[in-house]
Amino acid sequence: MAQEKMLSGCAAAAQGAKFAEVEVICSFPIRPYTAIMMELARMVANGELDAEFVHGEGEHAQVSVALGASAAGARAYTGSSGVGVTYAFEVYSPAAGGRYPLQMAIADRTLDPPGDFGSEHTDAMSARDQGWLMGWAATPQEVFDNTLINYRVGEDPRVMLPQFVCQDGYFLSHISDKVILPDLAQVREFLPPYKAPHPLSPLCPVSHGPQIRPDQGAPMDAQRAMTFLEVPKVIEEATDDFNRIFGRNYDPFLEKYKMDDAEIAFFIQGAHANTCKSAINHLRKQGLKVGMVRPRWMRPWPTIQIAQALSQVKAVGCVESSTSYGGATRGGNLIHEVRATLYDLENRPLVTSFMGGLGGDVVLLEDFYYMTKILSQMVKDKKTHQLVYWIGFEEE
Amino acid sequence: MAIKVPKDREVPFGAITPAPVRQQELFITSNWRIIRPVIDHEKCTRCLTCYIVCPEPCWSYNEKEDQMEWNWKFCKGCQICINECPADSLTAVPELDFEDGVVRLEKPF
Predict the structure, then answer these.
(1) A24-27 and A76-80 as β-strands: parallel, antiparallel, unpaired?
(2) Concatenated DSSP letters for B66-102?
(3) How far is A200 from chain B (nearest CA, A)?
(4) In chain A, what is the straight-line distance between the N-terminal and C-terminal CA atoms, in Å?
(5) Rounded to an integer, what distance in angstroms lies between the CA atom of residue A272 and that of residue A172?
């Protein structure tokens, strides 16, 4: 029976893993994701979930254990936050290159130094070139849904890639909202069992991750690049199926809010998008034509869909909750890929970026109003005055 | 936009290969060999010292032919076997002298 519960993002992620009937879980504590493992430990202990629960000796061990389990043919689950994500970094490429569709839940957290529990996207963003699928949820329901969708896409024989299922630490991981939990039968219809093509097994011995010759390196990379050309189609199929079976209404790649007649748009990922939508509602009452595009996938970057969605507006403000020190714009990460996406358009919108939500900052309604003022001025002047604005630090 | 990898450079999915029983068929670790050990089967006493001292081993005894057999795919030309052969049946010959010599600039592998 489908039931409605008030769940935090962490609890929703744990429910997602439970409904996905994960077989091997590897834990190591770090807040804020840690609550996911607390929930899963409880479920395993009281028999609600039949899974092997392994305590890793660190985040590097977590991903290694999950990789080994996936290599042996088990559906594996792990997770981390902040410096835990970066501690496991070595294993990310082996997991993606070895084509192991394990899932890693990331409740993001500011990277050290010194020790900031607050949300920031930089931890997961820093791994975006490692070849995993990845995207941010905006609500606990979406965390639950993304857990299932990511296993479905990642384990598809055309894909076979691990997935980072990301959510804002604290804002999403620790604040409850309504989540509809489905019937297990619905999940089983959507998500078939994991079938590894060549699992490690004494019955049919194979070598995983052998040494290769240097001239085999580029073909390996090409194989992985070609897979990402296939992934968008698999995402579309999976999302359509998901919507049909569970009664949701997800656009496969983007959440578009009031974009039909928008002149300026926010490009924002994660939970602060919820505040953005409220801000847009208020701004619209004042007659300002503002809209929002929220990417649900960071990798693969939905290039065609973003270009299409933003092509109609005059100015785009990327809300950056991650840093790219020394990057092209000396600001965040989203602006680089948005500008690259829009570069070949006949009529390019102006694109700027706003550093907000760093360190665990709340992005306030007032912040969105400030950003709108800047974007409106850009439209009036037909010019980008600054590529990066630091919210709260600028002279007004 | 597909990426066309040349046929002779294709790799198995995820670099997953059959588990080797004797040797990994797809692998070569000899392309930097510059000295090749050449055996004189007349002088060879089949003492198997070359097999024992070879780090790989690249020498094996072929029972049917009653001869020592050399593995070109993995021999790196370290010359331990040449040094250790008690019958002086092994000679060091430059790899470039051979038509099928591996270390050539025109073909890296």
Answers:
(1) parallel
(2) TEEEE-TTT-----HHHHH-TT--EEEEEGGGSTT-S
(3) 10
(4) 54
(5) 9
For B89, how many CA atoms within 13 A lie in the half-sphere containing its CB? 17
Which option is the CATH number for B46-96: 3.30.70, 3.55.50, 3.90.226, 1.20.1250? Answer: 3.30.70
Give the distance from residue B44's alpha carbon to the nearest chain A alpha carbon, in angstroms.
Answer: 34
Domains recognised in chain A with CATH numbers: 3-246 (3.40.50.970), 254-390 (3.40.50.920)
What number of other Cβ atoms are within 10 A of residue A376's Cβ? 18
Tens of pLDDT, residues A74-121: 999 999 999 999 999 999 999 999 999 999 999 999 999 988 999 999
State the Cα–Cα distance between residues A30 and A78, nearest whole angstrom.
12
DSSP for B16-67?
Answer: -EEPPSS--TT----TT--EEEEE-TTT-----HHHHH-SS--EEEETTTTE
In angstroms, the CA B45 to CA A279 distance is 89
Q: What is the pLDDT of residues A255-266, one digit of tens each?
A: 999 999 999 999
Q: What share of chain A is helix, strand, coil (3-state, %, to 5)?
A: 40, 15, 40
**Cβ-proximal residues to A281 (8 Å cutoff; 6+ apart), any chain:** none
Is A366 exposed, middle or buried, given 0-12, 13-18 or 19+ CB atoms closer than 10 A?
exposed
Per-residue pLDDT, B1: 67
Which residue, chain included where needed, has tokens 């296993």? A151
What is the length of chain B? 109
CB A2 within 8 A of CB A181: yes
CA dist., res. A325 & res. B103, Å (int):
44
Chain B residues lying within 8 Å of A211, measured CB to CB: 27, 29
pLDDT score at B105: 58
Which residue from B11, B29, B108 is facing A223, i.e. has the nearest CB? B11
Domain range list for chain B: 46-96
In the block, residue with structure tokens 């990789």 = A67
Q: Write out chain A residues lying below 8 Å of B27, CB-based.
A: 210-213
**Residue A381 has which token pair?**
């002047």
